[in-house]
Write a structure and sequence with these properties.
single chain; mainly alpha; rod-shaped
């Protein structure tokens, strides 16, 4: 492609050879001047368009750069979001495992404590049951011995009631030869009675009421 300027068009008029029956210079020269002017306008317009294209290209490049930056930022944000989600999920799983482990430890500790308390309660119940049984046996022994004691005392009272001592026999006799009153006959000894039976029991059994 030939690089043709308006000045080249204007100078071209002197380069054409004159010949017989050629173009009329009066017609050719105005056309060349018109073509030069038009070409100058085209060159100027082309230069302006080239500059505009350059500006638009630079703006497009800048816009594309911004778009790439935005796209990269979006990709980075998505990756960061995904990493944050994964990290949050890992942390949540870790917290959940720790909570489950702690809950399991608490459950085992509670079960162990409940088992110890149940065993202690069973031992206390067995001990109290044994003490109650021993108290029942002690009560039964006490009642039997107290019954024997009362029966023995009742037998003694019955024997004493059946005994008929002659307490007025000495009073009916007169005075003796010497004028002295005879001495009262010696009182007869009471039948021996059995020793009272002390009620068995512990030291403070007397302070407790008898069971009904």
């Amino acid at each position: 492609m030939i690089d043709l300027t308006p000045l080249d068009v204007r100078k071209k008029r002197g380069d054409f050879r004159k010949a017989m029956r050629g173009y009329d210079p009066a017609d050719v020269d105005p056309f060349l001047e018109l073509a030069a002017d038009r070409l100058e306008e085209l060159v100027k317009s082309n230069r302006d368009l080239t500059e505009e294209v350059g500006r638009l290209r630079r703006r497009t490049d800048a816009q594309e750069g911004r778009e790439r930056a935005v796209q990269e930022a979006l990709v980075s944000a998505q990756e960061l979001r995904r990493e944050i989600q994964e990290q949050s999920q890992r942390e949540a799983e870790l917290v959940l495992r720790e909570a489950e482990s702690r809950a399991e430890d608490l459950r085992l500790a509670a079960e162990a404590r409940i088992q110890r308390l149940e065993e202690q309660a069973r031992r206390n119940m067995d001990r109290l049951r044994g003490e109650l049984e021993e108290l029942g046996r002690t009560r039964s022994r006490f009642l039997r011995q107290f019954r024997r004691f009362l029966e023995d005392e009742l037998d003694s009272v019955t024997l004493e009631e059946q005994r008929d001592p002659d307490l007025g026999a000495g009073l009916d006799e007169g005075p003796g030869v010497s004028g002295e009153m005879t001495a009262d006959p010696a009182p007869q000894a009471l039948p021996p009675t059995e020793e009272p039976i002390e009620p068995p029991g512990d030291a403070d059994a007397e302070s407790r009421e008898f069971p009904e």
